[in-house]
Records
---
Amino acid sequence: MDALSAAFVLVADPYVLWVVLASSLFGMFVGAMPGLTATMATALLVPVTFFMPPVPALAAIVSATTMAIFAGDIPAAMLRMPGTPASAAYTDESYAMARKGQLDLNLGTNLVFSVVGGLFGVAVLIVAAPLLAEIALNFSSYEYFWLAALGLSCAVLIATLDPLKGFVSLLLGLAIGTIGIDPAAGFPRFTFGTVELMQGISFIPAMIGLFAISEILRSSVAMEGGFEAVEGKVGSIFKGIGAVARRYWFNVLRGSVIGTVIGALPGAGADIAAWISYAVSKRFSKEPEKFGTGHLEGIVDATSANNSALGGAWIPALVFGIPGDSITAIVIGVLYMKNMNPGPMVFIQNPQFIYAVFLIFILANLLMLPLGWAAIKSAKVILRTPRNVLVPLILIFCVVGSYAMTNSIYGVVVMLAMGIAGWLLEENGFPVAPIILGLVLGEMFEQNFMTSMIKSDGSFLAFFERPIAGVLGGLTVAVWGLFAYKAVRGLSGLRAATA
Amino acid sequence: MTQFTRRGLIASIAAASAAGTLSRESFAQAAYPSRPLTLVVPWGAGGGTDATARIVGALLEKDFGQPVNVVNRTGGSGVVGHSAIATAAPDGYTIGMVTVEITMMHHQGLTELKPTSYAPLALMNEDPPGVQVKGDSPYKTVKDLADAIKAAPAGKFKASGTGQGGIWHLALIGWLQAMGLKPDHVAWVPSNGAAPAMQDLAAGGIDIVTCSVPEGRAMIDAGRAKSLAIMAAERNPMFKDVPTLNEALGINYSVGAWRGIAGPKGLPADVQARLVAGLKKAYESKEFTDFMTNRGFGIKWADPQAFAAFMEDGDQKMGAAMKAAGLAKA
Amino acid sequence: MRANDAVVGVLLIVIAAAMVAYTATFPAFPGQRYGPALFPRLLGAGIILCGAALVVRGLAARRMGEAWIAAGDWTREPGKPLTFALVLACLVGYILVSESLGFIVTAAAILAVLFWRFQVRPLLVLPLAVASSLVVHWFFASLMRVPLPRGILDSIL
């Protein structure tokens, strides 16, 4: 328990608390602004966290994302525009409630059950991560190979609406990841003799390009000043929440569980969690006909789910170095920069940092209650921020952030190239999140394959010999079997439809 | 921001006259260094090289009275950062930490850069490799392990610690050759640095890790790995119980990963003299010695001439070893 | 800009084929059956298969009357294509001149151009651009020690 008390000391540092507060306000703002996502908030925070010690750096990311996911609900209800994609699943429902005059009840519900869902996700993280880390200490390259394979498979299977295009994105991400020195033989691939390309496609500038620059390109041609909020004053938002909790307690639990599990699955984050739990809620509701008319039930499920997904996503990120969503993909980059290489070793080497992250998660979720209340109260002012000033400033932040990652103009070049590519891909219905997963997991996948082959003297059987590796391998094969089954069925369905 | 306080002005005049370059031109520029310096590190933030560079940077900053920004230029197995140092303007405002890889990369055909591409300033550190095995390994001494390796067929034992052709790979090759074995008698499993290799060792994926002892410290302290020997002339004061190869096997083989400071070729003589003086002062400071010994890092000094000779010697040894192992580009 | 899936598919196949062809120059891994070329080749094969599937899908959509390439609605609105090009030009410009002009000058110029284009009140454009670039430089270069290029302001910083 020494580590726990050390963690308390780390978190109680006034500097850390100041960082938590400042990044919470930042996260609230970014989340509430339509077009600025929680992932983007994290990407913009990275250059700032670069020179911080590990604990405040992680605190900044945890607090900002926690707030951003909730804050996305505010413009969803007021403007029918989700602040972040995580609120998209129930934006229409929320807006319908607001128009029925139930804006207060809607925002109160969103706030309170975001806090509850968030705390649930953290609780699972606190219990599961150290247990999994103990098991993961015995993982060799075989197990890591299968984990990477499983992560890549999940990304295609559940994380995208169009599996074919999702798969293309993933393959493109993996292909981009092969640029640079190869992880086994040390040979420079696809560098065309340039020194800069030997470092590979730097991950965070690529991320800033894919998520932020492509968004700036889109909004540069959709610039309409500020936003006009719905009529109606915000009153006392906590009225009637007790009744909601009594009526829908099971929905809160179910949403939180689904959210945590989906968050923990690689490649799928808060937005998918919200969509799935909303669909589940409707499927099992006693009154599904009310969904879509401003009914609270589905919102309770989904708003719990998207916040619990945040904590869930940290489980594979911390224990295996496999991101649960695009936010933790960035977190892994930050951990590497702080020499806290994610993996079971970090639980032995720096347990106090891990506990500090847990404490900050709890703190941020509790802080969300007063800050969320304040954000709701001042929402109309926040939403009046002129976008024509904001967008150019974000562009400059992106440039500085990318530059700071490589300490050279190379980062900005990568950012621009990936920004244009991301914009083009999204225009054509290719999701960009799998690209990031491919970039993060590609090296892990290839390196562990190559080292396993060297260790086993070229025998494929060795991949199934160790017990855990065998189970993970079987699971991966099963996932692909399911995928093939679905694809075949989908294809015959398509034929029937076109015939 | 340059501040023209009276004391600053007097100090710069004094420094300029001391360097013997007082003239109208240098009066306008003040004495070197008159603005912030950049110290390029070819490896990632948080690692051993980064930590060493940051303490050197902090001590130089104190001596020079100018900020010294440590800038990580990572990737490409060190090529990117080493290239940034060599191609910087030779004005003394960009220097960098060069590492043992500069004597190895050009043999592999990764770059044209070699030790002579730099103006060497000072050698600061050298760490010898160790021989680490799993915590519950049957081999209690390095002699047990050596005997088992000799008795086993080629390729049976697997070792790791860094990438293919990296410094710890060459350490293994050198050790095997010193025992009269072939360079590939123990198979090398490339890894992404010492930490993942130590984890794979603890997980039972590989048999030996030949990284330096301080790099394996976390696993050793946790009891999941143990160090059987170090390939050095003397024991490390932080790890007194670990014998040298010479003591245990009578093999006199030592090779190490070193770190030094260098600038781009063509540094003006007065700038170089000022930098070497600052580095010497940093090296001799108590802060530096305490910092390095606490982490178990070895300290080793060489002035520019000796450092150049040291690199040249290492370059030839590495070239020969890599050629023998088939790692060098023909 | 939205292209028919068949167009995208053909493009992907061409890129992947070039990638696979290039791996022929990669050396073998000494003593191993698989070398650095294996993984890019597998990926290339995967992309080619997916590209083929996209071509099939795109041709089906084409028969239903989809255009080969359709530009977004905004391209027909006056001024919008220019705005879009201006944002890209600002980024390319930063890459080209920031090293010689320095961060503060380049960033202020970019901000001024974009503020002007996005119709910020004319009197505010310059003060806002200069003040923001100074603040960003102060925060990142002085506090965070990011080595932002100093350029022509080198002597007075």
---
Amino acid sequence: MSVLLSVDQVTKRFGGLAALEEVSLSVESGEIYGLIGPNGAGKTTLFNCMTGLYTVTSGAVRLDGAEVQALKPHQIVKRGFARTFQNIRLFANMSALENVMVGRHARTRANVLGAVLRCRKTRAEEAGIRERALELLNYVGLGGKSRGLASHLSYGDQRRLEIARALATEPKLLALDEPVAGMNPNERQQMGELFRKLREGGVTLLLIEHDVKLVMGLCDRVAVLDYGRKIAEGPAEEVRRDPAVIAAYLGGEA
Amino acid sequence: MDIFLQQLVNGLVLGSIYALVALGYTMVYGILELINFAHGEVTMIGAMVALSVIGVLMGAAPDLPGVMVVLAGILVAIPACMALAFGIEKVAYRPLRKAPRLAPLITAIGVSIILQNLAMLIWGRQYVSFPPLLPVARFEFLGAHISLLQIVIVVLAVTIMAGLWLLVEKSRLGRAMRATAQSKEVAELMGVNVDRVISATFIIGAAIAAIAGVMVSAYYGLAHYYMGFMLGLKAFSAAVLGGIGNIAGAMLGGLLLGVIEALGAGYIGDITGGFLGSHYQDVFAFFVLILVLVFRPSGLLGERVANRA
Amino acid sequence: MLDSLRRRPRLAFALLAVLLAALPFIMGFGLGNSWVRVLDFVLLYVLLAIGLNIVVGYAGLLDLGYIAFYALGAYLYAWLASPHFGLHLPFWVVLPIGAAFAGLFGVLLGAPTLRLRGDYLAIVTLGFGEIIRIFMNNLNAPFNLTNGPQGMNLIDPVSVAGFSFGKTLHIFGLSLPPTYFYYYLFLAFTLLAIFIALRLQDSRIGRAWAAIREDEVAAAAMGINTRNLKLLAFAMGASFGGLAGGLFAAFQGFISPESFTLWESILVLCMIVLGGMGNIPGVILGAVLLTMIPEALRYIGDLQRATLGHVVVDPSDLRMLLFGVALVGMMLFRPAGLLPSRQRKREFAAEDGVAEQEQASLYDAKA
């Protein structure tokens, strides 16, 4: 397997406060990689650094070997790295279908002239966008809900819609920020199945999760962050027995 | 050299008035993240009300000393502006606190238009002149002329700023204001009556604006229904320059903008070889505003305000 | 009646076309030729409002200095087609240059400022509008570019194939003043603008704008280059404004800085807000209403003269006051406008929906 994403000595400071300190990790293509850690450990900060929302203070992020830490979010998406957000950021007043159609933006090209003249090429592209968006809605299990407003969907469906929207950008690597937060065990299990299906389809998954049990059951490898540092990385079974990890979790809860 | 000093003095006087008006913008922005577009108009109403009172008093009691007449004008203008600001907040802003961001800004513009046109209907389209009631003593200082009025304006402005500083830093209300600015939700949980704090913020800003309005009209010797617009914009620019939401920033920004404007107007002819003249004075505030927002949107003393993820 | 028309869109379309074609004659012979002039202005404002709607309604960028682009288009027309510099280029050359010129300024202003948050952008654009006006007012010395507050006059009227729009035409015993010809010219441009705006709205570009308006961060995470698309909206809006400005200059034959104050910007914004941000029919309705109402208000003056013997309140003084009241009232009571777009309706209804639900559950608890 080849390394798809590598994070190399990334440090992020806000003012004087270090949210991440020299974090390194690498995600191999085709795996499901879990990123866990107590609240405030810096998981989302790391996501934001990788996807171009934050600029790193120092260090490098490489996607397919090319440095991307200086790129803008939209450029990183074009290189095949999509994400979802912890606090779901859908386009609330657009329909589910429209949300996913927006996701096709990076992979389509119609410009102003094409849009105004609506030539054959634009019409074909537009039809393609709609078709692909409907397919993706079906794929994540929202087939019958394409016309409904995004904000009217149930919580779990909103998470699914966000994944469909991210998939519309044709990612090689999909980063999911707490995708099962607030779901019941049954829904969690369904989401787990969706993740496996995604992997079968060739998408590499990077997963921030709180729920250690889910991560351990699903992920090939896991990294643990605590206070902005990586304290462990490796196969789930090994990490689970790591004393530093146990201390971080027990210490955090005590 | 003496031109420089003279313009510096003029700039500081004008700047201290800008600073007073800027306080109103910055306090409201600090708490509500709302640009209270109508604040300039509140300032104008303050000047107009005071001038009306002064006019009536001069007719009714011609023997009263001029200073007393002006003082009476200010004392009526202050509560009038406070009531006005209280009403504006309650009617035009409060119902929209949870609406999309642009909604309250649009009502603010609406209120501004309403006040301006009401003022035009009440006080007419003409300039209202400020009667010569105040002593016109002048002093000379290193070749620059300073009038008594200028000194009074600066001293009064500094006193008000110091008072506001004390209020915000030391009083219970001030603490509640700072808590509300940090987070309305948390402040509410801590037992702060957020609605009342917001009302108080508007009222305090308006009281200061009333005084500033009288100062401006006394300084230029006239008032006009349109005066609040430019004054408001400049004060807002001053607040942004200092760092919006930051009270000390508003004071600094006001003084700085006044000086920039005065020196700019004094020297622009020389700098551009006569291409641009002093009638471009009003442009400086906008250039400062645009430059600050582009290069340092947090202002001189402010925190980051750029769009956060 | 309306229902049967809705079922037969072609017939409705044909009726509308006939109505639009006959409108100046209906107004001119029914109410007087001054109303044809009003119609011309209605069309100009529709054009302006459609342009501003791309910026404000589609992309969600509050632009309070929009009239500056109108001014740039108008002055450019005057420079290239008046005795001022002795240039007399034809309108079909000048108008596109004016639109491009205004669009270029849109990009120049937008590039550094579009990363600002919405309300800051509003103030910066307002400042820009004022700067442009102050320069127009003062650039008569040392080099006379704008003729200062006196403005520029004797601007060439539009002329097509040797036929000048500037003179009254006597034909078939009718005399048709220039306002009639300009009506059809403006109508053509306005229809073109409406067509462009509608096509853009329902396209990849329009969806990207809507996404930016809804959530800029999420839009960027979808691969949308938010800066470029915001610039595009800004530039397109500006060039519509520049086009309208050029038409205005040719129509009036005279321009001065007084026509381009902040209040004109706010007037156009009012049209959008009143009609329904983001929704083209709403925007058109807003522009029509706000241009016609002040004309109708003139009758209030006549009414006062008839009943009270003199004019107590000058109706033109009331105009802006009413606009202010309308802005506040609309935001408070019908924030999505008279004819809201589907999306805006939802946006503003969202809060109410939550509040209603909470209320409902409260009542349930009591019962």
